[in-house]
Specification:
Structural class: mainly alpha
Number of strands: 0
Oligomer: single chain
Strand content: under 5%
Number of helices: 16
């Protein structure tokens, strides 16, 4: 019995050891499975081209974005290379047109963002109109917005200016004095031309000459331009030919009226009669308008600066009084129109 009891006790001791051994074996088996799965993933990464040190589960976005980043850099480099090639072609074309290296650098620096082909198209239109390299540079520097014009608009305006006779070098002065001739509305130019032809009765050739010699008329109000011609023709007795030759239309109305009326009151200028005759010899227009005020007073008017200043103040006062009388007359007319007639009052 004692032997049997010792054997039973030995079994009870073995049971915990056996369960512990089984548990440890089960844990080791799970770890082996996890290790095996990890190694399989590594092998899959290696077979797809990766290395042992990198895993697709660590930085998947970086691996996916790198090809796109390389593509963007490639496109950027290709675009810069293409622009550099186009720039070289434009430089070569400008040099062939007669522009110097200094001119080319100036043209390319006017508006750096301008597309090279756009720059070449605009310059080509100006050259076709008869402009030399120097006037082209001056015009574009004074009016950089010319480089932003649509090429088709530039071509249409160039065609219209040719019809007006502004070509073969005549456009040089126009662009220098009025570079906005390419940017202003077509209708505004046509209105000025119509005033010169229909209201002032200049010939087509004379209109071309006026636009060439006095480009500032393009900026004037049509009504004021017509009044300026009427003052010259009827008040001063100047003929159409002389208006063109003396560049009369480029001078301000204030300057013209002050000097003309001053000479009249001094008895040194007379409006010619219907036959063009006067009792006193009138001074030439160039001696009235083209000279400085000091020379005008000393040689033409033979008067002092003090006397001329007093005259200006008197003229200004006369104009104010005249404007006041006109305003009173207009207000009186409005009041008379508002008052009902006697017959209407009786009917009411």
């Amino acid at each position: 019995m004692a032997a049997l009891g010792r054997q039973v006790l030995h079994w009870h001791r073995l049971i915990p050891l056996t369960w512990s051994l089984i548990a440890r074996q089960t844990t080791q088996l799970g770890e082996q499975k996890r290790v095996t799965a990890f190694l399989l993933r590594k092998l899959t990464t290696i077979s797809s081209g990766g290395g042992l040190g990198e895993s697709p589960f660590v930085e998947p976005q970086k691996c996916a974005q790198e090809p796109e980043h390389r593509t963007g850099l490639t496109q950027c480099l290709l675009e810069k290379q293409r622009m550099a090639v186009e720039r070289e072609k434009i430089v070569s074309s400008l040099l062939d047109m007669g522009f110097s290296d200094v001119h080319v650098n100036e043209l390319l620096s006017i508006q750096p963002g301008t597309h090279p082909q756009q720059l070449l198209d605009i310059i080509s239109e100006l050259v076709l109109l008869g402009l030399n390299p120097e006037p082209v540079c001056v015009a574009l520097k004074k009016s950089p917005q010319l480089l932003t014009l649509p090429v088709m608009q530039m071509k249409k305006r160039s065609s219209y200016l040719r019809k007006l006779g502004l070509r073969e070098g005549k456009l040089k002065r126009v662009l220098y004095c009025c570079p906005e001739i390419f940017t202003m509305r077509q209708r505004d130019i046509e209105i000025i031309v119509r005033v010169l032809k229909e209201k002032c009765l200049f010939t087509v050739k004379q209109v071309t000459e006026i636009l060439h010699r006095c480009p500032s008329v393009l900026r004037e109000d049509p009504g004021e331009l017509e009044y300026k011609f009427q003052y010259a023709h009827f008040r001063m007795g100047i003929k159409h030919v002389d208006v063109v030759k003396t560049d009369f239309l480029q001078y301000s109305m204030t300057k013209t009226r002050e000097r003309h009326v001053f000479l009249e009151r001094l008895g040194r200028y007379q409006t010619p009669d219907k036959k063009g005759q006067t009792l006193v010899p009138n001074p030439l227009l160039k001696d009235i308008l083209r000279v400085s005020e000091a020379e005008f007073l000393a040689k033409t008017a033979c008067s002092s600066a003090e006397e001329f200043e007093v005259f200006k103040k008197l003229v200004a006062r006369e104009e104010e009084e005249s404007e006041g009388r006109m305003a009173d007359a207009e207000s009186l007319e409005e009041e008379e129109e508002e008052e009902p007639e006697e017959g209407e009052e009786q009917e009411l």
